[in-house]
C-alpha cells in the first residue's frame, strides 16, 4: 500500500498566496501525492505547476458553505474543468438537506456531475452539522445524484472526520462503486492508517508530509 497515493494534498486557506500554492505543488511532486486540492481560482496555476508530474489537480466548488446557487456551482465547475481540474470536491447544500428539500439537494449535485461525466466528483456532506440519520440521507442522495466519492468534511466546520461518521456513510453504499474521502483533523500516520484500514479511499489533509514521513512540522488546520 502506497500511503502517499491516498492523499489529496490540500491548501484551502483564504490567505493562501501564489507562492504558498506553488510550494504546495512542489511538496506534492516530491512526495508523489494523489492530488493537490485548492480553491478554484488557483486551478490554472496548479495545473501549470504539475504539468510534468502524475499528480492530479483537485478543485473545491461551492466551498466551504455549500450555500451558493446551483447555477453558481455549475459555472464554477465549468471554469475549474476548463482551467485543468481533474477532480471536483463540491459541498452539498446543507440547508436544503435540513429543510427536507431532498429533490433540490439531488439536483444541485446531479447538475454539477452532468458537467463532468468523465471526471471524479466528490460530494462533501459536512458531517459535523448532521445527525446520524442526516448523514445517511445525505450519503444516499449524493450517491443517487452520481457522486463518485462521498466526503466527510470541509475542514472549515465545527469538526472534521470521525470513524463513526465514516461507518454511517459506509452503511449506505450498496452499489459497490461509491468511495469515501475522509478529511478534517487527520494529521498523523496512525490516524490516516486507521481510516484507510476502515475502508476509506482518499484522505484530504494539509498534513500529508507529516503523514508519510512521520515528521511533524507546524500544526495545520485541515
Description:
There is one protein chain. This protein has 222 residues and is an alpha/beta fold. The chain has 9 helices and 8 strands. The protein has one domain: TIM Barrel (Alpha-Beta Barrel), CATH 3.20.20. It has an 8-stranded parallel barrel with strand order 1-2-3-4-5-6-7-8, surrounded by 7 helices. Helix 1 links the parallel strand 1 and strand 2. 47% of the residues are buried. The mean pLDDT is 96. It holds the Pfam family DeoC. Its main location: cytoplasm.
Task: Summarize the helix and strand pattern as letters.
Answer: EHEHEHEHHEHEHEHEH
- Looking at the overall shape, the CATH architecture is Alpha-Beta Barrel
Termini separation (Å)? 23 Å
CATH H level: which superfamily?
Answer: Aldolase class I
**Class of secondary structure makeup:** alpha/beta
The pLDDT mean sits at 96
Query: What Rg do the Cα atoms give?
Result: 16 Å
Assembly annotation? single chain
CATH fold assignment: TIM Barrel
CATH class category name: Alpha Beta
Main sheet specs:
8 strands, parallel, barrel
Total count of helical runs of at least 4 residues: 9
Unreliable stretches? none
Beta-strand content bin: 15-25%
Number of strands: 8
Overall form: globular
Number of domains: 1
Helix content: 40-55%
